[in-house]
Amino acid sequence: MDCTKAASTVEKTICASAALYELDSQMGGVYRSLVRATPQAQAELKTAQRIWLKTRDQCAADVDCLDQRYRERLQSLQKQLSETVAYQPVEIDRLVLEDLRQAIQTANKTDPEFPLERALDSFAIKTGTTTFSNVADDDNAFEEAHFPKIIPVGVAQDEWQALTASKVESAGENGNSSYTLMDLDGDGLRDLVVDTYSGGTGLFSYIETFRRTGDVFVRRTGTADSDSSSESSLFSLNGRGANQSVYWINVRGRVYAAYRNSYYGVDQLYLLDPLKITGAVPIVSVNYRYQLSVPKTQKDDASGTSIKLDAVLHKALIQALVNVSTTEAKDVGDQRTPLCPIPPAGEGDGAYYSYGPGHYSFEIVGDTSVVIAGQCYIGRLMDWFGGYSAKDGLYAQLDVRKPDLESAEHSYTVNGRRRMTGVTTSIGKFEGDNGG
Questions:
Q1: Could you give the 3-state DSSP secondary structure of residue 131?
Q2: What is the reported pLDDT for 433?
Q3: Considering just the CA atoms, what is the radius of gyration of the chain in Å?
Q4: Residue 369 phi/psi, 5° resolution?
Q5: Element (H, E) at 96
Q6: Quick check: 77 and 23 in contact, CB under 8 A?
Q7: Mean pLDDT across the stretch 54-71?
Q8: Closest Cα partner for 332 from 350, 309, 312, 320?
Q9: Minimal CA–CA distance to 320: which of 298, 297, 292?
Q10: Element (H or E) spanning 162, and its range?
Q11: Taken in order 141, 144, 149, 154, is the CA torsion positive or negative?
Q12: 294-301 average pLDDT score
């Protein structure tokens, strides 16, 4: 809006408010981008915008009313723009899916525990990349780390000039950010991947991408006006609870950020085009079945000591696992019958149907009854979203308590060795989406 020409009450109110003027500027930018992106629908867009302007003008000098109208319209236009320009898979993406499926099935013949990892490793980008991080000043350790002041090893002079000209420094918690140069679009110029640690409850890291365009790096944005890492990120990684990771792979000459989001019994792999707004994405799903076991020797992490379970308790815990799914997490679910008999008096009925509330940092595989020496206990098998290692296999925990919410609980380590049961491919929505 040209405030030198403001004439109506609404226009003067907008020009008198920095917040409203900023919203007007943002909306104008998104609207123009949408018009350019949809030439066939320009007449329809202009009509809709004129109708909205009439609705806006009804607010007159009411700042709160104008703020609400602008935010509603801006959100609507941003959604339309994202849907319009979002990447949709093409034939080569489907061929890549089939390549991955076959590679996973081949790897399964020799390594049924880690077929996905083996297949991804065969496509991983292992050359042509340079990574560096923010640095802290030696003379002031209390200051946050910042973008390097001298050219890092492995960065070409023209890349350094483009980096400094683009002001790509990311402000992670305590300055924790890293930068990777790699060619993401096959044009011979290395693009930029920025990993920013933001901390917070989930210990999140946000990964953004920038395309090398001439003498600058241009940020890929999740929405038309994204200006922060959380809004413009290609994806995020949750460092507490969730089991997520990324592999940068090259298949058939195309680079993907292969984002893995895992749960008990399944690895979901999303193939993200690193420089485009995310629409529908190619997905690979790898399913597993576990053979669960309870180690006879249990370690107490808090005290560092170990105890050996007696035969009766060990057998009871093993028997309890028979009632737990070995292929998928059931969560608490709809318990139609109590896990233990409900006495005529005592705790409310609810205490007998499930173990109780869970927590976001672990995954509830299922609740079960545990019968020890003729007494019925409530048990819950939980894991850390399919977290798995070659040494220990699945790391899970069986919590056991009496049917009394106030009673003390006992925890026992449960391990599981997995085997792949199948791999499927599809096109669908990206679960880890952050606005793109």
A1: strand
A2: 46
A3: 27
A4: -85, 145
A5: helix 91-110
A6: no
A7: 94
A8: 350
A9: 292
A10: helix 157-166
A11: positive
A12: 88
For position 304, what pLDDT does the model report?
Answer: 78
Query: CA quadruple 41, 43, 47, 53: dihedral positive or negative?
Result: positive
pLDDT score recorded for residue 260? 96
Q: Using CA atoms, how far apart are residues 157 and 393, in angstroms rounded to an integer?
A: 46
Residues 6+ apart with CB under 8 A from 364: 329, 330, 331, 332, 358, 380, 381, 382
Contact 284, 269 (CB under 8 A): yes
Are 182 and 128 spatial neighbours (Cβ–Cβ below 8 Å)?
Answer: yes
pTM equals 0.81
Mean pLDDT of the chain: 89
Instruction: Provide the token pair at 355.
Output: 């173990």
Q: Which of 434, 14, 10, 92 is nearest to 231 (CA)?
A: 434
Which pair of tokens denotes residue 413? Answer: 């380590």
Per-residue pLDDT at 412 exceeds 60: yes
DSSP reduced 3-state for 167:
coil
Residue 296 corresponds to which amino acid? K
Alpha-carbon distance of 385 to 361, in angstroms, equals: 9
Of 393, 373, 370, 395, nearest in space to 382 by CA:
395
Question: What pLDDT does 408 receive?
Answer: 83
Q: Collapsing DSSP states into helix, strand and coil, what is residue 377?
A: strand
